[in-house]
Amino acid sequence: MTDHELELPALLGNSPLGFLAALGLLQLTQPLLEQPPRLSWRGPDAPAVLHTHQPLTHQSLADLLARQLPLEDDDLLTVAPGILGLPASGPFGDALRMPVDLALDLLACHAQAERDRSAPTARWFTALVNQLSLETSNKKTAGRPASGDRGDLYTTTTPHFGRTGQMTLAASWAKAADHCRSDSSHLIAALVAWRRVDDYAGANLDHYATGDAHMVSHGKASQRGVPGATWLALHGLAAFRLTGDTTRAQTTSWDHTAPNGALTWPIWKQPLTTTAITALLEHPLVRHPNPDTTKLHNLGVTALYVAHRTRLGQGHGPLQPARRIHPAPTSNDL
Questions:
Q1: Percentages (nearest 5) of helix, strand, coil residues in the chain
Q2: Digit-coded pLDDT (tens) for 246-261
Q3: Which pTM does this prediction carry?
Q4: How far apart are CA 258 and CA 139, in angstroms?
Q5: Domains of the chain: which residue ranges?
């Protein structure tokens, strides 16, 4: 098979937003190409590379991505409709935090659709709605499943999305899509050189989207997110499995032992499909606190990173800038 490479200068492996956006790019292009695209990295702190069976330019790739943008009245998640358009049905104001019985019914329907016509909705549903980690509707006992009545139990959602105030994943998805739909140049900018937008907060995936007052000329704190990269990154959430034992959540690439949680991820040198990437993210060697350098090298992993979640008064804050944990930074990296 012919392998055409397209380097993506803006999607750096040492950026949480860049890493997630590269995963989302793969999720969005896979249904549109005759053969599955693959992803690799030029090396530590280096750009992503898209591998395809047909040659692509940055513009033709951006045009391809634009085909996955929802129309104004369409389902926000065009590759797996029927999830982000659900109505809110609980005390949390978030449709993805639904009664557990409803979640199980929906998952059964999505799984049947996957068996009948290979619909991908079940995979997306389980990446966004965790029916194995439950909270109660009673704020006094939130986070602790109630005994007996399951009607009091609600699902949680992915910790990769940090909720602040009244933010929801669906609303953040809609804002990113709106920006890209109104100005398609955001998509090519996401690939080659990020263009920040005033008063756009992003989805708490990018520390640099939060502008402190002393960093801008007008002297006021502001939001300056990257709509195109954020829209891609939200689709990257499909790569991470949500599991748990009802009382404790587990999520691929998420460190629950950190005070506010942390995203951890590898980059690799060999081109991988979406399925292979999920297998690598879940590999015990990648998740080990003291990884074996030789074994990681044998897996093709060239670096490991971590980005801790910050905390704001109204809830979760953006992910911090990434810190490389393997190989250990040298004096030349500092």
A1: 35, 25, 40
A2: 888 899 999 999 999 9
A3: 0.92
A4: 23
A5: 4-72+184-195+229-236+257-333
